[in-house]
Fold this sequence. Notes:
The complex is a heterodimer.
Chain A: H1 4-23, H2 27-54
Helix pairs in contact in A: 1-2
Chain B: H1 2-5, H2 14-25, H3 29-33, H4 37-56, H5 69-79, H6 83-90, H7 103-128
Amino acid sequence: MTSHLGLMVLFAFFVSATFAILxxxxxxDQLILGARLLGGFVAGGIVLGWxxxxxxx
Amino acid sequence: MATATARVATQANPLTYAICAVAxxxxxxxxxxxxxxxxxxxxxxxLPLMFAxxxxxRGRLFPFEFSQPLVGxxxxxxxxxxxxxxxxxxxxxxxxxxxxxxxxxGNAFLIVAGLLNMLVVIDVxxxxxxxx
Lengths: 57, 132
């Protein structure tokens, strides 16, 4: 759980859940938006991580 | 056309500010006050849990030290969570363990939990003003 990926997913879960709760009124809509945001955050984090791995910074 | 879309400017009354203050102090309480029970209960669980994760990850509650602007800003963000911040301070938690591998993650959880609660307060203000 305390791996880099695990903590990133946990962090993304909290942020996406809060955004979804604030932005949608119905629970079903909140779940859909929350899942989409979570997927986007995690996928985006992995892509950015690999880009930073390749870039000589 | 412009008149059709123009919004009527509403002056916030003291009660709106009181609701916002409560929303800051207890995450989710503002939504509960306004009758948004599902949102209120969800936020009441989520945000303090995120803050608790930050403490568990050995993050630091930053001091109000504005000689170092980033430390000062992090302190402002930390206090954004409201009551859990003061409870953690009273229990001498959040001292931060720099050598812990999860230290920076903990800081991110603590800071973002506070910032998200500030966003919740803004949402409460809009809701109380009848904009949502």
